[in-house]
Amino acid sequence: MLRNAHLKLATAIVVSAVAHHSPVAFAHGSKAGTLEVVHPWVPPTADPTADVFVRLKIKNTGRHDEHLIGVATKAARSSELNLQLPGGKKTKRNPGLLIKPGTSVEIGAQAPSIVLRGLSKPLSAYDTFHITLSFAKAGNVEIEVMVDE
Fold first, then answer.
1. Which residue range is the domain that position 63 belongs to?
2. What is the spatial distance between Cα 121 and Cα 144, in angstroms, rounded to a whole number?
């Protein structure tokens, strides 16, 4: 009987350790080929009608240019990749956000930005949701976004 209890406890510990050390949960980021998305997060918001800006860093460890060309999520009515030229002018034909080889790009509240509009619910600290980043070469990459305090 005691041996059975120890076995159940050991199994629970292993399952918990594996679940909490997945690439998304442990590193709070994601890798797709030569791209690495680091610390995707949003601030808490009680008002689901407020615009929310996703913050993250994208690293290109490859040898070729990559372009972030879109974003989608079920957590909001709409999502937008906002790219602006210096002076606040929007581009007419936009090939996406260029990420050169060996560099990284910060995405935040200023351009470039990912804006979520019409949240499906208020966001509280430690909530998570998924968004899909669309890249020209790497294709679609789903990431987990954390609501930070």
1. 29-147
2. 16
Q: Is residue 101 part of a domain?
A: yes
17 CB-contact burial (10 Å; exposed 0-12 / middle 13-18 / buried 19+): exposed
Type and span of the H or E element at 133 = strand 128-135
Question: pLDDT class for 109, splitting at 50, 70, 90?
Answer: confident
Q: What average pLDDT does range 104-128 have in this prediction?
A: 94
Q: Which DSSP category does 71 fall into?
A: E
β-strands 97-99, 128-135: how paired? unpaired
CATH number at residue 63: 2.60.40.1890
Question: Looking at the domain assignment, is residue 1 inside a domain?
Answer: no
What tokens appear for 61 in the block? 């460890």
Nearest to 23 by CA among 31, 15, 35, 32: 31
pTM summary value: 0.76
